[in-house]
Design a protein that fits this description.
Elements: E1 11-15, E2 18-21, E3 55-59, E4 65-67, H1 69-75, E5 78-86, H2 92-96, E6 112-121, H3 122-129, E7 137-146, E8 153-160, H4 161-164, E9 170-175, E10 178-179, E11 189-191, E12 206-210, H5 217-220, E13 224-226, E14 236-238, E15 245-250, E16 255-258, E17 260-269, E18 276-282, E19 290-291, E20 293-294, E21 304-312, E22 315-325, E23 350-357
Parallel strand pairs: 3-12, 16-23
Antiparallel strand pairs: 1-2, 3-4, 5-6, 6-9, 7-8, 7-12, 9-10, 9-11, 13-14, 15-17, 17-21, 18-19, 18-22, 20-21, 22-23
The structure holds ligand MTE.
Residues 37-42, 85, 87, 142, 144, 155, 184, 197-198, 200-203 line the site of ligand MTE.
Length: 358
């Protein structure tokens, strides 16, 4: 077993802080096992004693709350939901192939995973606190210190009040039926389905209703999409919804497969509030496309797996995939079209190279 109970073959981008993704074959199940679930950290895992842990809810609320884990469990209805988390840096390696992005890790397509989360609805906690109508944003604070933030500071983020009061946003203490592991935010983390993973704050200890977005580095500077020509820390658009994307999980790129019928499998994920309508696969670089079959979706907040059987001729073959969502939008063809200085939100067509032998 690898670090933090992860599988041995995790692709580890860094150990302190720990940043790792499973190989693509580790994402083939509808739900990702906890040992395969990617992990993205900006600092060391904080030591939080669950018995001493308290969650403060303050700011623009009628009643400030200070809740223990037991209070959360006993005072609010329990909710369980299957949801995908996806880092804004997922598939950055494709952007790095266009132009260098100094200081950012080359995540492949594994900075995304899906779990069944159990906890309470953030909406119920905000309702008990009596969130005021003047609140526009809900900010989250955590104790882990991020040394590379400018200046170094604990991790934090915020989401708009409309999303924060939706039923799918959870304060979760269990993941796939197991107590949340320290590396994933124990004792309690936020899960914001549909939004980039950065908003799902781990080790949450304060929730503040306020009239502006969080001024934490990870909301005000990072996880914003700067213009292509801008300095990486230049003003940018705050990333909220994940970008419609898809990736091929099997066969592995650069593998050798026998000619004839071959099954191609992958995942697709639509942006906040949308669903995947269709996935297409091309063997000629996008001139012609065949349609893949979509697996049933575990929940409206989960990715969808897809599969299709294609006839592979001997020789080198490139297989390309793209998804369409419920609004009729699709993915951009090339990473060149969306390159940005922080390397976020690469949702260009995914491609694998195969050597097909007779
Ligand atoms: N929360 C805290 N406190 N510290 C962090 O570094 N990383 C964020 C988010 N929440 C982070 C955090 C990012 S960028 C992502 S993509 C997700 O956690 C990753 O969650 P995971 O490690 O459970 O997969």
């Amino acid at each position: 077993m690898g670090l933090f109970g992860k599988r041995d073959d995790m692709i580890v981008h860094g150990t302190e802080p720990y940043n790792a993704e499973p190989p693509r074959c580790g994402l083939l199940n509808a739900r990702t096992e906890n040992a395969s679930f990617y992990s993205r950290n900006h600092g060391s895992v904080p030591h939080v004693d669950p018995a001493a842990w308290r969650l403060t809810v303050d700011g623009l609320v009628e009643r400030e709350l200070v809740l223990s884990l037991r209070d959360l469990r006993e005072q609010f209805p329990q909710r369980t939901l299957v949801a995908t988390l996806q880092c804004a840096g997922n598939r950055r390696s494709g952007l790095l192939a266009v132009r260098d992005i100094p200081g950012e890790d080359p995540w492949d397509a594994g900075a995304t995973s899906t779990a069944e989360w159990t906890g309470v609805a953030l909406a119920d906690v905000l309702e008990t606190a009596g969130i005021q109508t003047s609140a526009t944003d809900v900010a989250f604070e955590a104790p882990d210190l991020a040394p590379l933030a400018q200046p170094p500071q604990p991790y934090g983020s915020s989401i708009d009040v409309a999303k924060a009061t939706r039923r799918e946003v959870l304060l979760a203490w269990a993941m796939n039926g197991e107590p949340l592991a320290p590396i994933h935010g124990a004792p309690v983390r936020v899960v914001v389905p549909g939004y980039i993973g950065a908003r799902s704050v781990k080790w949450i200890d304060r929730i503040t209703a306020q009239a502006e977005p969080s001024d934490n580095y990870f909301q005000a500077v990072a996880y914003r999409l700067p213009a292509a020509a801008a300095h990486p820390d230049g003003a940018g658009v705050a990333l909220t919804s994940v970008a419609l994307t898809s990736a091929i999980l099997a066969p592995a790129s650069h593998s050798t497969v026998p000619a004839g019928l071959s099954t191609i499998t992958g995942y697709a994920l639509a942006g906040d509030g949308h669903s995947v309508a269709r996935v297409e696969v091309s063997q000629d670089g996008g001139h012609t496309w065949g349609q893949a079959d979509l697996d049933p979706q575990a929940s409206p907040w989960s990715w969808q797996h897809w599969r299709t059987t294609v006839e592979l001729p001997p020789g080198p073959v490139t297989v390309t995939a793209r998804a369409w969502d419920s609004t009729g939008a699709t993915q951009p063809e090339s990473a060149r079209q969306i390159w940005n200085p922080k390397g976020y939100a690469n949702n260009s067509w995914d491609r694998i190279e195969l050597t097909v032998v007779p």
